[in-house]
Each structure stands twice: as C-alpha cells, then as structure tokens.
Amino acid sequence: MRKTIFKKLEAQGLIANYNRLRKNLPPKLPERVFIWDETFREGIKAPTVYLTYVEQVKLAKLMDESGVAIINVGFPALSEEIKRTVSRIVNESFEHAKLTASAEPTKQSMDACLECGIKEITLEAPINGLNLQYRHKITKKQALQKITESITYCKDRGANVNFMLMDGTRTAIEDILQVFQQAADVGAIRLGLADSVGFIRPLSMKYLMSHIRDGLPDAIKKKIPISIHCHNDFGLATANALSAMEEGASYIHTCIAGFGERAGITPFEEVVTCTELLYNIDTGIDLGKISRISQSAEKAFALPIQFHKPVIGENIFAHEVEEDVEEMMAHPLVFEPFPPEIVGRETTVFIGRNTGQNLIQEMLEKAGIRASPRQMDELFRRIKGPHEGLDKGEAQMTYYQVKKLMKDLQKGYTMDEFWRLVEQVTRQKPKMYSDKKATP
Predict the structure, then answer these.
(1) How far apart are CA 154 and CA 205, in angstroms?
(2) Does an H or E element contain 193, and which?
(3) pTM (2 decimals)?
(4) Phi-psi region for residue 416, left (φ > 0), alpha (ψ -120 to 50) or beta?
C-alpha cells in the first residue's frame, strides 16, 4: 500500500511528487537503512523517567517485533542497578534485534559490559580538543591509543565493537578520518558519528559526511557501515539524520518519540516514516506497529507525547469539519500526507466550535432532519458549550499543578542542592566548590 498509493496518484495526474525525481535522489543513498534504538541509553535520561525491568522488556520486545535492527540496552558501568538490568535483558530472547551496550575506553567500563554477557559493545569516545582538554585531560595521541587498545581488548574477549565518535560534528575531518581508520584497522565492525550537542545543520552534515566517506579507503567504505547519532537541541535531529543518510549512513540512531536528555534525539517514528515514504528505502520496520510502540513508551515514561507531534501526535490525523463531510472525505490524502493506517492510526473528523452553522444545517438536511431555528440555536450552543463553559483560570491552574508535579518527580539535585545535602548529612562544609560553568 505505502509503495503504490503515491505512484497511483502521480500516474493519474493528481499530484506531483518531487521526492521521486531522479535528480532529487542523492547518489550515495544506501539501498537499506537499519534502525538502531537508543531508548534505554538516551531516552531514560529524560527528567522524571524511570523504567522498571518489565517496562523495558516490554518495549524491547515491541521494538524487536517491529524490526528494529539494534537495541542499545544501556551503560552497565554507570550503576549496579543498570548492570543487573542489562544482564537480565541479555538473557531474554529476541528474534530480529541485536543487543549492544555502551562503554567508555576504560577497563572498568568494558568489563561491566562483558560481565553482562554483551556480545556487541558500543565504545564511545571523543577526540576533539574541547573534550580532551576539559573533560578527559589527555592528549589526542593518548586518546587514539586508548581507543585502539580498548577495541582490541573487547575483541580479544569475544565481543564485537561499534566505535562511536562523541562530539564528532565538532571534530576536525582529518581527526575523524584518523580515528575511523585506526578503529577499522583493529576490528571495529561499525563506525559512528555523534552530533552530541545538536550543533550542526543539515547542509553542514552533508558536507561533513561526504568528506568522511570520500576520505576513507575503499576497503573500509565497502566493508564497514557508518552510523549517525543526532541530538535535537536546535530541532534538527531528523533533518540531520536524513542528511547523513543521503551521504551513505545506513544505521540511524533513534529514540521512541524522540525522548532523551535535553531536547532528546532523533525520533524513531519520524525517521522511519520519512525513509520509507519520502525516500522509498526499506528500514525493515513494520510501520503498522509505530503507534502501539509510541503509546507504550508514553505510558512507561509517564511523559505525554505532544498533541502536535509528527506521525504519533493526537492532532496529526484529526480534522475539524469546515466543509461538506462527503467532499472532505472523498479522498483523505487531500488533507493528509499519507494514510494513517500505514502507521497504525486512523482519521478522526469532528464537529467543533469553528464548524459553521450553515454547514451544520446542510448536514442535517442531507440526513433528512428538519430542525427549527430554536433547535438549531440549541444544537449550536451545545457544540460550543464545552469551550465557553470551561473555566479557563481553573484549567490553567490544573496545568501548572501538573507541570509542577512533573518537575517534582525529577530525581536529581542541582549542584548547590547536592552540597547542601552533603553538609546536612556530614555536618561538614566543602572546602571549595564552584557551580560556575567553565568558560572558554
């Protein structure tokens, strides 16, 4: 259905589809795109979010059933709780998805993954000056050595390694090529680039990815796929991920509904529907399961999905009647981008306060109902009633109470609050602490 409906409309001369023009199809597009889910690595970083083991397994099983290629099940070294959860998930059975877990290039971090039984480790590390100088306090030479030694360490212990270059979109191209070359030489099976703070724009992403692909030896390009991980700080995660895909990236990191720390990362449902419907590239995903997955995530995360969220929001397939219903419904694609059934949704048409009284009267007449002027006034009053009778002040108060509750659910402490807590518990003042951020 999804592959033929737009072709039929084109053939009938009803629409123009510029997405299908040969000149608009990037030559480096991969033949197949794989979805790499980061919900348990990135999504759970969203404030207020805590997933039980049962919730994680349920979501993981749904993703597996839908055709997700890789599921990152977390960062075992962060805590014993996460390590126990990862160990349990590894022992679950999955039909399609491969499991990976994240680690830094340290023995303790890698061993945490290995002890969980993880057979595919995603090694995360930066090499740009900002991170090396202010965060890791090592030289680029030392960083490169740690990365290659760490990949070898994991390989020697029977685990495959994906290498993910953190803050990659703010790293010099020559340094990216150097670390990718070295990672590939010691056995990394995938090379990844992370836009860790969402700082790049789509055309710049195409430039960067194009130069990376052109700069890598043919042996690496043909053998080792590239993955892309985009944050959404400027609202460009989906656009940037698709731009990287246009330059050959075949593994796209996503999170259900785009949940994650700060503004989240590339939304699963947006990338899948764009790739399938706008590029006509297979992702292996059963699109009909998208709605169910998003609803399950919303419930587990206890975070409401925006009503105007693309693909999965309440409003995307909801339409207020503003013209004859029969004319409006003659072909849904007149007012919808694609049939909602494709993603497990349905069209909702409703009568609301903006539906004209004359139109309502015409609808009644077509239905064989004759309403007196008094009855029409009463009908129209009731249609508008829920809005006009609403106490907006009370509604706003309820909204702010819910918003406060969501904030109160955050588990963490600010640094000032943390040190006050330390002082209360230990009855000792910290000798020196500054909550000021480092400045250039």
Answers:
(1) 30
(2) strand 190-195
(3) 0.88
(4) alpha
Q: Please report, as a single letter, which amino acid is at residue 211.
A: H
**pLDDT per residue over 345-365, tens digit each?**
998 888 877 777 778 888 888
Instruction: List pLDDT tens digits, range 14-69.
Output: 889 999 888 888 999 999 999 999 999 998 887 777 889 999 999 999 999 999 99
Tell me how far the alpha carbon of residue 393 is from its chain's centroid.
35
How far is Cα 8 from Cα 89, in angstroms, rounded to an integer?
44
Residues 6+ away with beta carbon under 8 Å from 276: 2, 282, 283, 285, 287
C-alpha–C-alpha distance, residues 103 and 414, integer Å:
26
CA–CA dist 427, 423 (Å, integer): 5
| DSSP-assigned states of every residue in 246-306 | HTT--EEEEBGGG--STT-B-BHHHHHHIIIIIS--B-S--GGGHHHHHHHHHHHHT-PPP
> Rg of the chain's alpha carbons, rounded to an integer?
26
Instruction: Give pLDDT, residue 440.
Output: 46
Query: Amino acid letter at 29?
Result: L
- SS3 at position 61: helix
The set of residues, in sequence order, having a beta carbon less than 8 Å from that of 400 and lying 6+ positions away, is none
Tell me: pLDDT of 5 over 90: no
